[in-house]
What we know:
Blueprint: H1 14-26, E1 37-42, E2 45-51, H2 61-64, H3 67-71, H4 87-98, E3 106-111, H5 115-123, E4 128-133, H6 138-146, E5 150-153
Parallel strand pairs: 3-4, 4-5
Antiparallel strand pairs: 1-2, 1-3
Helix pairs in contact: 5-6
Amino acid sequence: xxxxxxxxxxxxxxxxxxxxxxxxxxxxxxxxxxxxxxxxxxxxxxxxxxxxxxxxxxxxxxxxxxxxxxxxxxxxxxxxxxxxxxxxxxxxxxxxxxxxxxxxxxxxxxxxxxxxxxxxxxxxxxxxxxxxxxxxxxxxxxxxxxxxxxxxxxxx
Length: 156
């Protein structure tokens, strides 16, 4: 039976549906090291999306190269040495510039948020984060847990 029939056995769960969209959003990334997509959802409605890449109006790493790669900086360290804005940050900024409240929302991300994104998630009052892949940042997970943000690993 095809998915078009609406058969319950082929219909994705809400988490699967939103994570598929986050994966699609990641395809817009201009980062040379990692493509990350994020979306913010509340009441089963998508409020904002984001992918990692240079700020608006700034040349992308695809054009100028990767500072982190040139300096040999490993993942999870020295976040300030990067031209890119993280997917989670971009989704939060998109909501803010559109005047959309994300308090109580769920953030779906293809990669676990770093500490910088986690602090924004906490202050934005996002209550749940669903991630596809891990990221080497223990402090991030500790702070999310301390703030009461539920972190769920999406199982494929």
